[in-house]
Amino acid sequence: MKVSAKGSDVKDLKLAVEGQDLIDWAAREMPVLTLIRQRFIKDQPLKGLKLAACLHVTSETANLMLTLKAGGADLALCASNPLSTNDAVAAALASQHAIKTYAIRGEDNDTYYEHIDAVLDHHPTMTMDDGADLVSRLHKERKDQLAEVIGGTEETTTGVIRLRAMAKHMFDNRYGTGQSTIDGIIRATNVLLAGKTFVIAGYGWVGRGLASRAKGHGADVVITEVDSVKALEAAMDGFRVMKMDEAAREGDIFVTVTGDVNVLDRKHFDGMKDGVILANSGHFNSEINLKALDEMATGVRQVRPAVQEYKMRDGRRLHVLAEGRLINLAAAEGHPAAVMDMSFANQALCAAYIAANAAKLEKRVYDVPDEIDKEVAQLKLHAMGIAIDTLTAEQERYLNSWEEGT
Amino acid sequence: MKVSAKGSDVKDLKLAVEGQDLIDWAAREMPVLTLIRQRFIKDQPLKGLKLAACLHVTSETANLMLTLKAGGADLALCASNPLSTNDAVAAALASQHAIKTYAIRGEDNDTYYEHIDAVLDHHPTMTMDDGADLVSRLHKERKDQLAEVIGGTEETTTGVIRLRAMAKHMFDNRYGTGQSTIDGIIRATNVLLAGKTFVIAGYGWVGRGLASRAKGHGADVVITEVDSVKALEAAMDGFRVMKMDEAAREGDIFVTVTGDVNVLDRKHFDGMKDGVILANSGHFNSEINLKALDEMATGVRQVRPAVQEYKMRDGRRLHVLAEGRLINLAAAEGHPAAVMDMSFANQALCAAYIAANAAKLEKRVYDVPDEIDKEVAQLKLHAMGIAIDTLTAEQERYLNSWEEGT
Amino acid sequence: MKVSAKGSDVKDLKLAVEGQDLIDWAAREMPVLTLIRQRFIKDQPLKGLKLAACLHVTSETANLMLTLKAGGADLALCASNPLSTNDAVAAALASQHAIKTYAIRGEDNDTYYEHIDAVLDHHPTMTMDDGADLVSRLHKERKDQLAEVIGGTEETTTGVIRLRAMAKHMFDNRYGTGQSTIDGIIRATNVLLAGKTFVIAGYGWVGRGLASRAKGHGADVVITEVDSVKALEAAMDGFRVMKMDEAAREGDIFVTVTGDVNVLDRKHFDGMKDGVILANSGHFNSEINLKALDEMATGVRQVRPAVQEYKMRDGRRLHVLAEGRLINLAAAEGHPAAVMDMSFANQALCAAYIAANAAKLEKRVYDVPDEIDKEVAQLKLHAMGIAIDTLTAEQERYLNSWEEGT
Amino acid sequence: MKVSAKGSDVKDLKLAVEGQDLIDWAAREMPVLTLIRQRFIKDQPLKGLKLAACLHVTSETANLMLTLKAGGADLALCASNPLSTNDAVAAALASQHAIKTYAIRGEDNDTYYEHIDAVLDHHPTMTMDDGADLVSRLHKERKDQLAEVIGGTEETTTGVIRLRAMAKHMFDNRYGTGQSTIDGIIRATNVLLAGKTFVIAGYGWVGRGLASRAKGHGADVVITEVDSVKALEAAMDGFRVMKMDEAAREGDIFVTVTGDVNVLDRKHFDGMKDGVILANSGHFNSEINLKALDEMATGVRQVRPAVQEYKMRDGRRLHVLAEGRLINLAAAEGHPAAVMDMSFANQALCAAYIAANAAKLEKRVYDVPDEIDKEVAQLKLHAMGIAIDTLTAEQERYLNSWEEGT
Fold it and tell me: What is the Cα B49 distance to its own chain's centre?
């Protein structure tokens, strides 16, 4: 790792102007974060905080960084995925905004961890993670630094707030990954979705969003699940539900969004039709058993930039997109800015919340407070030009009473 | 109140054969409850329990009653709504199954409360409620009986389990009320939904289900909300969101599903178009301010069995369906049996759960245990002929570990 | 047949007031026809015409009759289907409007043809048909009257204008039958559509509308077809397409809309699941082979008003709705008034067109002139409060020129 | 123009290997054309024909060229749009398949017409056009060659068969442009469609397909039209319909698909919100009045590769995609191969049809014969693994008879 600019490690600082254009473009679709940034400039809620972030280094993340910096935080940023970095954006952050940035698209495994280490060398008092690589490394390799993290306690999980609320489920997963996964598949293959049998493994929030978008494109959607409640919901939503053993024989396109391992495995590859497309939209590239597929294939070749063709002994061709990494980041541009606006508005407000409540927070995992969700939603509606009703005094009274019913 | 058969009060016992046909028909769409009934006959989990139920007296409720009775319970049943009773079903329960039944379609207010009292006269040790009229009366008028309810404690809430889980939200509200509200509106009016502006007040589970069905019929759906998160979700689902003040001027059909009071009020009636249709699908008939509408109108007349036309001073005609009572019960047949199958399977298993855990339950409100939801869903999938995946040992290990990720 | 009032034959003239309410209710949803009626009163385009109509005798048809009468026509009306007559509407037409009406709900086959004959006894100079029973009888039994029909020619087809245009396909079939078929099935069975496999035989306009509505209710829709272009369109619309042999084994609900015979036949009944529902929404009750089913069954019984259960030797139960007659008329109220508004506005304008152009029309079948379609659509948009763009002079020029393109 | 290889004019012959990979990838999604190619190799239906084609030079068009060549045709190909050429594909056609190819992405206007002339220099006996530039030039500049075109007649329109049938409307426009327009907009902007107001000018086949896809992505779709029948259909499909004057103030994204000129004009730009996106998916770049917009703007700059920002005097920013050229070709990859498969299968069979029937064809425009549509659909269903029903003898008899009805 060479330290290229003010302690950063990025591909090419000359890309900074191009990167700034991308950041500005994203900002137009991030009105909520923009509003929060204006408030942060005034209130300085993160003053004195040393914040380490391990996130996809995209134009939207850049806007979060600028908001956190506006709030007074001292920042260091590394990539949470070797393939998701936009080098121009990284250059703009490093050179134009003097934010310590360690991220190069396509960096090898060693560089990836060197970059995480570089961020930890800044001795953060707060962490921001996407996939837990940063926190995990902190616990395993930097036990001595744990005490530095907010309040000097031993466990860094103090104050960690899970983004399991509205912003995460509704925007990030359902709308964001729903659209961008379809986008990634189409960019990678330019295949027509109408009339295709589209198999989705997993009917969590991402699966639901994806199913809805695939159906909207005229596909015949099939769901596989291991949870009976989710499986039933999929069936009641009009989708066919079956075991993957059976779906493997019917599908034209397969997308895994379970968060689990080897969801598409040897026995499934065996039954698939010639020409199928396999993609993953879960965080880790563990959902498609590529090792098994590689062993089964007589040859592999690149047929389009993000498409690898595995030739099977019986002549069938299986096409794996983006080496099984998350398709929306690897083959498209990840979440649209409007999605990240919600997610990052949430993160920014949570960071301020942790900073303000550090003394009171116990050593456990918290959910995002409801008020933050409601505030973000309210800001977003405002940005969309939508006004909603408020309860009348009579209605408030009614809701607070058991007595007025028939 | 005349006691007509074995202590019951129903319209006409001669309707019993017809009622039994309806109960049998419903049973075909209630495979989950049927399976539980078979188990209950063997296990007798409700043996010795005196159970008072205040529910809509429909063919589906009858199947729940037969299941609870099969489980050993001693039952008394009254109507939870004066308009929702099917007299033939009530007759069959009273005469063919010797279940104490107090319910007559169209009964007046006095009879309604006499029927609740009749049920309480049976000194229940467990209650089953839909809208809280039974529990409410128990607390207000029968304080002395409170101690009799499971375990002899003072508060009857012991052991009450809220059906706030899967079965309630997903089936009852989203799928059930979604379809049956549309059904009720069409039966009442025979109006074409395609091309109509369909305003839904409230985007909770019922509102979501209803919006989806109205959109599926080609309507242009408008949502009003007071909660910013729900309002935003509606907007992201592609629906227009606005204040009711504005929606009132655009809508052709209005349905309230908020659980609140006077959601459609004087100022809204003022701006509505000639010929609009107003319906309520919330539990109580408080959502449309009929008193105000009555005062504003120069005359009211019945134009179809479930349609009242309010003539306004300026000549506009506003059509209120089923006097603002829940449209799906008043103008259609309420939830399809398949919906009640899920809801009642849940209730039956919960009753058994309370009976089994009475000693351990604290004096507070519980949510339905996850296992009951999963079990009901599993039984339902089985009945639908759907098999789903199970986690492999490797997948279980992966999910239980933080370490295997990239 | 007894002639009850002014030469009419209806069930009970005392139902006339109730019938008039239904006619008035329908009129509110028929703004296009209302507008045409106002014009007809002034222009009297049908003056001197003797018009015989063989149509479903519903409240919407009544509004067409009143419009034709307003235009100066001398009318006689009989039912085009023994089960579709609304007796109250028939009474109102006969007594309050002095229109010769021959229709009694549930009339037997002999009465049905007596009624057609009664209408032909009026020596029509124009006919209006729905299913060709009237024209067919005219050709077979009343050859001598053929010359009386507009222009004294031998062939009555002179001036017949097929409603194969917009109004028929778009409104009548797609939107009208789409909604009302779903309505009929739900009224007949109260079954939940979500999660059901819904098989539709035929992907013409009715099949398309029905598929869209069933999908909107959360069903998994399967299409069967004999035409490759339609089959492909169904597949590209995201529906599964297969042979009926295969669909018969998967379906929960089957609806035939092909216009053909024995689309559901012996071999299909053999493979069906227990509890399936069979309905027809094509014009004739020939699509389900009930004769074969009857032979295969060990018994048949009525389980709900419009549901007959066929018990098979192996214990399976097949449920046929409305004896295979068109489900939307037999179990629901037929097309919503808004649909018939379009269809009947078209018929009224076509009648005026024939009257005006009788001399010029050749002896062949015509399609509805485009101008009538556009005029009806324009009137409908106006009634919906929708204004649309008009071409600018520049745009007209552009469209008329080949030269301005790049 | 320099003639680079065997008389062709392409960007760089070294791209040929890459181009061949793209052609092969497209071939996987073009099973129908592949099947026809196999037949053509055997039958040689185009033997002796000199065919001039003016088409988008993409990997799918390459597969059509290979099929026509396999059928015996002597080919020359030029681009039908300066921006749609894939240089690698052009290289592969020119060098690996020795097809005379004249197409360079981004070529200027002079080169564009030089390329058309080069194709005409080959003295075609049959033409294949997309937008009429070739035929138009033939009529204006090469009147002397008109006689050479099939059969030596004066008018080249002899034998031209309009692709107004299934393949064109259903696949090309509805499914193809529907998906690829969405794809182009997302690639150009990475904007989230959910929650956006999406205005579509024109509800022809493209507009319908696009509306369906936009709705499937969670957008609130608004339609503008000048035709009352189409406008009404849009309204009945659940979309809002209004004048562009009004839509201009509400929309977030605008797409024109009318085939007309200045559909988005000065007065519309005036009322638009800050940040709107303007795209065209009609054939010519005449639908957005860029001249007017340029005059109104204080400055224009490129903010993403296919996005130009027009800064208005009042500070609003309007974003025009791909300079108003067809967005699906300019910002994405045009139609998916599966769409072009249908369209080109049709073209190939039509070419054979013209060759076989040249003597019989009159000097007028023909529609594609029904049999070709049915054959293409049948081949496609076969390729999708879908089998459909065939009429039984009894059903054929029934359809051929008027007599068997009730």
Answer: 24
Q: Report DSSP state, residue D264.
A: B
Q: Residue B374 belongs to what H/E stretch?
A: helix B370-384
- Centre a 10 Å sphere on the Cβ of residue D165 and count the other Cβ atoms it contains: 19
Beta-bridge mates of residue B288:
B264
Q: How far is B3 from chain A (nearest CA, A)?
A: 25
**Which chains lie within 8 Å of chain C at 3 or more CB pairs, if any?**
A, B, D
pLDDT digits (tens, 9 = 90+) for A382-393: 999 999 999 999
Tokens of C122: 């009026």
Rg of the Cα trace of chain D?
23
Residue type, D193: L
Pairing of strands A240-241, A220-224: parallel
Instruction: Tell the burial category of B129 from Cβ atoms under 10 Å away from its Cβ (0-12, 13-18, 19+).
Output: middle
Question: Which residues in chain B are contacts of C306 at CB distance < 8 A?
Answer: none
Q: Tokens in use for A193?
A: 């979705």
Q: Using the beta-carbon criterion (under 8 Å), do B231 and A386 form an inter-chain contact?
A: yes
Give me the sheet containing C317-321, strands edge to edge. C240-241, C220-224, C197-201, C253-256, C277-280, C317-321, C307-312, C297-304
Q: Whose CA is closest to B75, among B161, B143, B7? A: B7
Give the minimum alpha-carbon distance from B392 to chain A in angstroms, rounded to a whole number.
9
Is some CB atom of chain A closer than 8 A to the CB atom of D340?
Answer: no
Neighbouring chains to A with at least 3 Cβ pairs closer than 8 Å: B, C, D
pTM: 0.88
pLDDT digits (tens, 9 = 90+) for D174-213: 888 899 999 999 999 999 999 999 999 999 999 999 999 9
- Between CA A234 and CA A240, with CA A238 as vertex, the angle to 5 degrees is 70
Q: Is D300 on the interface with B (CB under 8 A)?
A: no
Q: How far is A355 from chain C (nearest CA, A)?
A: 46
Instruction: Residue D46: name the closest of D57, D55, D37, D54 by CA.
Output: D37
Contacting residues of C for A234, CB less than 8 Å apart: none
Q: How confident is the model at residue A157 (pLDDT cuts 50, 70, 90)?
A: very low
- On the question of pLDDT at C161 being above 80, the answer is no
And the tokens for B357? 């855990």
Task: Give chain C's length.
Answer: 406
- CA distance linking residue B213 with residue B255, whole number of Å: 13
D388 lies within 8 A of chain C by CB: yes
Contacts of A217 in chain D (CB under 8 A): 179, 213, 216
**Are C130 and C79 contacting, i.e. CB atoms less than 8 angstroms apart?**
no
Chain B residue with minimal CA distance to C177?
B192
Burial per residue of B354-392, b for 16 or more beta-carbon CB atoms within 10 angstroms, e otherwise? bbeebeebeeeebebeeebbebbbbbbbebbebebbeee
As a whole number of angstroms, the distance between CA D377 and CA D388 comes to: 11
Phi, psi dihedral angles at C90 (to 5 degrees): -60, -40
Residue D152, token pair as written in the block: 């030596």
Q: What's the complex ipTM?
A: 0.85
Nearest to D219 by CA among D242, D246, D238, D245: D238
Closest approach of A1 to chain D, Cα-based (Å): 31
| CB contact D311 to B (< 8 Å) | no
Alpha helices in C121-165 (DSSP H): 133-141
Query: What does each C-alpha distance from B383 to B31, B379, C186, C253, D81 come to in angstroms?
Result: 6, 6, 21, 16, 57
Tell me, yes or no, if A405 comes closer than 8 A to chain B by beta carbon: yes
Do residues A259 and A283 lie in contact, with contact meaning Cβ atoms separated by under 8 Å? yes
Give the containing element (helix H, strand E) for A310: strand A307-312
Look at strands C100-102 and C307-312 and give their pairing.
unpaired
In three-state secondary structure terms, A114 is helix
